[in-house]
Design goal:
alpha+beta; Muramoyl-pentapeptide Carboxypeptidase, domain 2; two-stranded antiparallel ribbon
Length: 267
């Protein structure tokens, strides 16, 4: 035997355990790799399902596809509403001073809760005011609804000031401007926001049917917003809804005082 060379037996005892350990570790390594691969595949699959569900959710498609308002809002409608208020010389509430003056002069009248009409708890007492004809409309509207369904309507908003509207617009992208030809009609105290939350299809169909003939007569102008409220502008001509032409009876003939009054009113 050559000096310095390892014996064959020694080599075998050293190398064989190493080979055996390597062979035994291969199944464990393969199992770990398979588990990691399976976990990664499952994660990608779950992520794909989540994205697909978000895009193709039936509820999402329903809400988007079913948005078909009977009374849609538009820039032109806001312009027309403000033009009508200008023709009727209805002033806007620029600040708290204007609001207080109008309330004290009874140009704005309080809206109180009844069995047919509820007011949102977060609506301040100083904001529970509107024009007299708007209150007349609310009284008629809520009473007719209550007589039909035996449950009240809820008012979420009435008069606002320009300062309040400007603040609201900074936090609500759906809010109308505080100034200009598309300014919010809430500033004039002629508008009311009625809550749509909790209304059944039958109840909401009734509301649409109630408002449509009034809109055709130019008494109200509703707007169905994407928010859960129905915005309704009430024009001053609503206050003359009960006026009927006089009959041809003797009692309805013009008296001398009537004629004098008419003559005195001529320009």
């Amino acid at each position: 035997m050559t000096s310095g060379q390892p014996r064959a037996g020694v080599t075998r005892y050293v190398v064989m355990p190493l080979i055996l350990g390597l062979l035994l570790s291969i199944p464990s390594f393969a199992a770990v790799q398979a588990a990691q691969s399976s976990k990664s595949h499952h994660k990608k699959k779950s992520s794909s399902k989540a994205v697909s569900k978000a895009v193709k959710s039936p509820k999402y498609r329903f809400n988007y596809a079913k948005w078909a308002p009977m009374f849609p809002g538009s820039h032109d409608k806001l312009v027309a509403q403000n033009a009508e208020l200008d023709r009727s010389e209805v002033p806007r509430m620029n600040n708290e001073f204007d609001l207080l003056q109008s309330e004290q002069a009874n140009d704005l009248v309080p809206v109180n809760e009844t069995d047919a009409l509820k007011i949102a708890d977060n609506l301040l007492d100083t904001r529970r005011y509107c024009r007299p004809w708007t209150r007349d409309f609310l009284s008629d509207f809520s009473r007719a609804y209550f007589d039909t369904f035996h449950t009240p309507l809820q008012v979420n908003s009435l008069v606002r000031t320009a300062d309040q509207q400007a603040y609201l617009r900074r936090h609500n992208r759906f809010a109308a401007p505080a100034f200009g030809d598309t300014a919010s009609t809430h500033l004039a105290g002629v508008s009311v926001d009625v809550s749509r939350r909790g209304l059944s299809k039958t109840q909401y169909a009734w509301i649409r049917g109630y408002l449509q003939p009034l809109q055709e007569k130019g008494m109200v102008d509703p707007i169905e917003e994407r928010q859960p409220v129905l915005h309704i502008v009430v024009f001053e001509k609503y206050s003359g809804k009960y006026l009927q032409p006089r009959g041809n009876s003797e009692a309805s003939e013009s008296t001398e005082m009537d004629l004098l009054g008419l003559l005195g009113s001529q320009p």
